Amino acid sequence: MARKPQAGPASDPELLILSSLAEGPKHGYAILADIETFAGYTLGAGTLYTAITRLVEKGWIAPEAAEGRQRPYALTGKGLVSLTERLNEMQRVAKIGLKRLRTA
Amino acid sequence: MKQILVALLIRLYPARWRSEYGAELSDLLLARRLTAREILNVLGNALWQQGRTGEPWILIGIPLTVPAMIACVQAFAGRPFADPHTRAGITATVLQIAAYVVVGCWTERRGGAAGRAAVKMNLLAAGPLMLLGVLGLAGALSMPPYWRGMLTFGPILQTPLAAALGWLGGRAARLRA
């Protein structure tokens, strides 16, 4: 059973969606299933689409040609840069925290 | 039953948002187990979208109907809330002026007509009071003649003031931009 983060950067819907789309374009249902698998976090459908709306407005993800009523979303160049920056920042903070824990 | 509930939930979102994402969200909800938590999640996010994209005059005007009704009930009970000589009356007047300016400013920033938005908010917020006034004029509600006239025509007489303050709010928004 995967860990269930309740708060903090690892449960930020935007970050989770961007991380899911880093693997390739996905539609809403596939994004939710993927996030449940890799983060152990269940996003609400309303939260998912609010975050998708924000990410589309920021130009970090973009809808592709529809597959029936579902449209897959793909990471844009801008989204890729933002995701990389955010993950690097998290990694930097985590590294420092873990190092301090070891030396404490 | 589930389809009806999902359709109702989707209807809570703003029309523009629905046309973009409504079908996808609807399909997703139909494919998942619709728990109370999921319903509350969709409800909360629908309200959030309404707040983000709704018309400022509606978003401010609807909550303003509540103090307007309270003021009216208090006045009928013989304790006039909005007496301009009391501190509460002055506060109410200042808040009313601020509401016109804020609606004008907000509407301008969204590319709408600031003065017209303030007028619409004024009529919306005073709508229940005007209805009471009309009932008084029709004899369906007992009230002093002064109140009948003031409730029915007061908000209409305030229209130029609302338009001017809304316009000023719009100008302020343009100066800041």
Descriptive terms for the model:
heterodimer; A: 104 residues; mainly alpha; Arc Repressor Mutant, subunit A; two-stranded antiparallel ribbon; 4 helices; 2 strands; 60% helix; elongated; disordered N terminus; B: 177 residues; 2 domains; globular
Could you characterize what this model shows?
The complex is a heterodimer of chains A (104) and B (177). Chain A has a single domain (9-103), classed as Winged helix-like DNA-binding domain superfamily/Winged helix DNA-binding domain (Arc Repressor Mutant, subunit A, Orthogonal Bundle). Chain A is built from four helices and two strands, in the order αααββα. Chain A has helices at residues 13-21, 28-39, 45-58, 77-103; strands at 61-63, 73-75. Chain A has a two-stranded antiparallel ribbon. Mean pLDDT of chain A is 88; it is low at 1-5. Chain B is mainly α and 177 residues long. Chain B has two domains: 2-53; 56-176, no CATH class. The model of chain B has no long low-confidence stretch (mean pLDDT 85). The interface between A and B is medium-sized, with 16 and 22 residues.
In a few lines, what is going on in this structure?
By secondary structure, chain A is mainly alpha-helical. Chain A is built from four helices and two strands. Chain A has a single domain, classed as Arc Repressor Mutant, subunit A (Orthogonal Bundle), CATH 1.10.10.
